[in-house]
Specification:
Elements: H1 2-43, E1 74-79, E2 86-90, E3 93-97, E4 105-106, E5 113-121, E6 124-130, E7 143-146, E8 154-157, E9 164-170, E10 173-178, E11 183-187, E12 195-197, E13 203-209, E14 212-220, E15 223-227, E16 235-239, E17 244-249, E18 252-256, E19 261-265, E20 273-277, E21 282-288, E22 291-296, E23 301-304, E24 312-315
Antiparallel strand pairs: 1-2, 2-3, 3-4, 5-6, 6-7, 7-8, 9-10, 10-11, 11-12, 13-14, 14-15, 15-16, 17-18, 18-19, 19-20, 21-22, 22-23, 23-24
């Protein structure tokens, strides 16, 4: 009898811990919205969340895709190099949109909250966040990995310790901002061992130089900062510029602010020029080859094939 009581209490405490983790995530989202609005008012810029991506354009909505309710709270985007499918990380799981379709279907059965998401290679994804309503385990997933295009996930490290809201990877280098502790963490061995680095501020996003994984540009609530030594030291780039970032080529670093205005930097983030607008507040920003992708807060995803000047629907809300 005592054992059953203890098990029931443990499950209850775990449910409470998960709910608290979700409430912390929601508070961060609301705070980020306030930060965006303030940045827009002061410096005509703002932010939300990002990832890595690519893929094809699409036509009208199909009949077997996910509805807007399923795709609410988009956290990240990614393209699978195997077939060019677009993956959408959300509050209720991972979704896939095939090339040429404007709908998205759930991947697997899990409804875990994928807060951090990054495509590492062919059929290989990294993630972080919180377990779904029917999943067991700690409230923070730490770093998780899928080697079958999101069909199944396994724990890599930091289970119960880390909730990466920003998660970026290139080869064995992985950068993560742990929202549960407010720490910036780096690993150079694929996630087995981590180092805590100086945090340049509350991190909104981070982009990795496609030619040098030790060179990163981070967006914080105070502006853009740059590191050439994997986050050991930082240099201020643009004060007050709060934005989502994606870096598809050495001379093409893109940003999108809270208004949805897209800008391009040819010199790693020091100088910027306007390109176009996604038409609303962004929820995720990404790139794949020469294409740019942006998720909006209405759960639509748009694509640009001309460097951000014009945008077309990729996934309908």
């Amino acid at each position: 009898m005592g054992t059953r009581v203890k098990e029931t209490q443990a499950r209850r405490l775990e449910r409470v811990a998960r709910q608290q983790a979700r409430e912390r995530a929601e508070r961060r989202r609301r705070l980020m919205g306030v930060a965006i609005a303030a940045a827009i008012a002061v410096a005509a810029s703002g932010a939300i969340v990002v990832a890595i991506s690519g893929g094809g354009d699409s036509g009208g909505a199909g009949s077997n895709g996910a509805g807007g309710a399923d795709l609410s709270h988009i956290h990240g985007l990614g393209v699978n190099p195997t077939d060019g499918s677009l993956y959408i990380a959300t509050h209720t799981g991972l979704f896939r949109s095939l090339r040429g379709q404007a709908t998205a279907a759930r991947v697997g059965e899990t409804e875990q909250d994928v807060m951090g998401f990054s495509v590492l290679g062919r059929d290989t994804f990294l993630g972080s966040g919180h377990p779904g309503p029917l999943q067991g385990g700690p409230s923070n997933l730490g770093l998780i990995r899928s080697d079958n295009a999101g069909g199944a996930w396994k724990s890599v490290s930091l289970m119960g310790e880390a909730d990466f809201h920003v998660l970026r990877s290139k080869d064995n280098m992985i950068y993560g901002f742990n929202a549960s502790s407010g720490t910036f963490m780096v690993t150079s061995d694929g996630g087995r061992g981590w180092d805590e680095r100086e945090t340049p501020g509350a991190m909104v996003d981070l982009a990795i130089d496609p030619e040098d994984p030790a060179h990163v540009v981070a967006s914080t609530e105070e502006g853009l900062v740059d590191s050439t030594d994997a986050g050991r030291t930082w240099e201020n780039l643009v004060e007050g510029k709060v934005a989502l970032l994606t870096w598809p080529a050495r001379d093409r670093l893109y940003s999108v602010d809270g208004n949805g205005d897209v800008q391009l930097s040819r010199d790693s983030g020091r100088r910027w020029r306007a390109r176009g607008s996604i038409g609303g507040q962004p929820a995720a920003f990404a790139s794949g080859g020469t294409d740019l992708y942006a998720a909006l807060t209405d759960a639509s995803v748009k694509r640009s094939a001309d460097g951000g000047a014009t945008w077309r629907n990729r996934v309908a809300p």
